[in-house]
Fold Histidine triad (HIT) family protein.
Amino acid sequence: MADPDCVFCKIISGEFPSRRVYEDDHAIAFLDLQPWHRGHTLVVPREHVASVVEGAPVMAELGPAIDHCARLLVDRLDADGLNVASSAGAVAGQEVFHLHVHLIPRYADAPGLRNLIKPQPAEPAELDAVLAQINGAA
């Protein structure tokens, strides 16, 4: 099921473009347009589910995508670590009400949780460069 007003459902359907890192029968992963750090990727279920605590339980189905992408990002982007996060509800900071898991590669020049969330709009050329590096084309 898709929500016609959901930006992530529109990305999944191809109505909105994205820089896809991974996809399988249950999930897709794409680069965040306002990354907290270089390579910040979102893993979302193909099915519209509002959050990890609301709607059908799909986290187990996302596991393979999360595992694959986490390892891919660290390996291909030479990250020194990785944060995995998901917010449930507006009070927790959720802004798009389609379940999504943040995979945030971390680098030694900005360590720790105090340096985690600093979103900046990414230039399209930088997103293309990150995607090429992840895909092994750089």
